Amino acid sequence: MTVRVRFAPSPTGYLHVGATRAALFNYLYARQKGGKFLLRIEDTDLARSTDESTRSILEGLGWIGLQPDEEVVFQSNNADKHRAAAKKLLDEGKAYRDFTPKAVPSDANVKDTIKDRARAGQGTRNMRDNAYRNISNEDSDSRAAAGEPFAIRLKVPETGKTSFEDGVFGFQERDYSETEDLVLLRSDGHPLYNLAVVCDDIEMEITDVIRGQDHLTNTHKQILIYEALGVTPPNFAHLPLILAPGGKKLSKRIHGEIVSLTTYRDAGFLAAAFRNFLALMGWSAGEEKEIYSLDELVEKFSLDGVHRSSAIFNYEPNNPKRWTDDKLIWMNAEYIRTMPLTNLLPFVKEELRSAKLWREEYQPEGRALSEAATSTADLRPDDRPAAVAIDLPEYGSYDWFVRVVDLIRHRFFTLKDFSLQGRAYFSEDYDFDPVAVEKNLKKFPDLQTWLPELAGRFESEFASTPYTEENIETVVKAFSEEKGTRLGVIMNGARTLLTGVAVGPSMLSVFEIIGLERTLMRLKSQLAWN
RNA sequence: GUCCGGUUCGUCUAGGGGUUAGGACACCGCCCUUUCACGGCGGCAACACGGGUUCAAAUCCCGUACCGGAUACCA
Hints:
Blueprint: E1 4-7, H1 17-32, E2 36-41, H2 51-64, E3 73-74, H3 79-91, E4 95-98, H4 110-120, H5 137-145, E5 151-154, E6 161-166, E7 170-175, E8 183-185, H6 193-203, E9 208-212, H7 216-229, E10 235-239, E11 242-243, H8 252-255, H9 261-266, H10 271-279, H11 294-300, E12 311-312, H12 326-338, H13 341-354, H14 373-379, H15 398-408, H16 416-419, H17 423-426, H18 434-442, H19 447-461, H20 469-483, H21 487-499, H22 507-514, H23 516-524
Parallel strand pairs: 1-2, 2-3, 9-10, 11-12
Antiparallel strand pairs: 4-5, 5-8, 6-7
The structure holds one RNA strand.
């Protein structure tokens, strides 16, 4: 039997980080087994479901690269089938009509209300004490015919237990006395979650249900429904939860946008890096390797490697440097600086484009960015004979763009950095980091005249000499000695003027890549001093 | 309350009877260097607690504590 798994989010908001991981694990499992990964939108709660949310889920899955293999199933489209199933169970005496008037929950804190009510039961509540459980068929039928509203509840047997072998948690068992006669159909005729899930999973021929640990008790209820329906249940595997730093379940409501996948896409994370990080939340291949391509994940993934303990997703709301999990930030940076340049360029292009910094010259007609890879090795400053200037790409050209990206990516964390930290490489209109100005310029007031003077020196020196790292170094060194100051003072002052920031690649490379013309302009500029 | 689950460095984790308890992130130090968030080297830092089984327990068993999840005419 070929494996069929599904990711079944409810469309009540953006795609959640925890849900995304569940989707990922389902996907990996399916791919590894040569099976299908399906998507079902659980929109039976009409009041809370929105199309907007459905779009956002689809978009998020698309971004992270988890496309469903078959058409998306909308649970609400199957409501008639769910009702038919409930009717069948009713007819067979496996379910009964409950005429108890619907209790309207105070919607403020439903969770708390439920909890309080459960606690009030003192754990000794008889789950079978429903007055309508054993009502006669005639009585039930006539009341229904008279138009009295009713819910349909599953008639859970008096004694026995549900059990299953969980793919992660092992053998699970629960006494019937712990499970109440769950409602299958609301009094307004709407099917409820557990019934809908079971019906749809049967219909979709799902073989393995992989979902969060918060569904463990649902699984017992669902097995009861499978049994009543006379269908063999699928395999189940529950995933440990992802917790917030406080130790609570990561939730949209209390943790906000930090749990939304779109937050990471918008913040300049690479889908591959995010996916890689997520895979490591609650799963390990049992080796020290941490960087995995999607193919490698598919190959290595196993439910045996999934943990039973929950993981904490770290973040500090008020710390810009650690606004999200620091390992995630590291991993994104790791991808940016080590992935094949070929693969990175299109992302940089998109980032520059959205920041209005992209220029078509960076990608001439007929040249795909991916072609760049073969030429970059030659463009690496280290590999190039220092005295040879001829291979310095023209400012603003395609080769220049490729080389700049390769040069500046090493200290970047997100794609956003290319347009923020790296802005000065692509535009004349860039800001000066006040900290850098203070530390590298104002601390040495002489620089205000020295740097324009250095520009003059460059102008004359490089009128006939090639503007290369080696030659630049000679000139700057001579200049700093002449001024009786450390080389670093000149270099860092120039860095601040040329790039607006205090960090970056070797300053000699920066001079060279910025080009003589712009170097002169920026060294002479008084903008940063004001 | 009851049921279920969990507990190895701050975090993600490896290890499942004999290990100097390993790696990664973060942090700290040193080196490289014109600065730096790159790179190199090093450091700090963990088996929740109590019993038991055993020659030997982080590892197996029991209990305690703590944490989490579930509990609905939500999903």
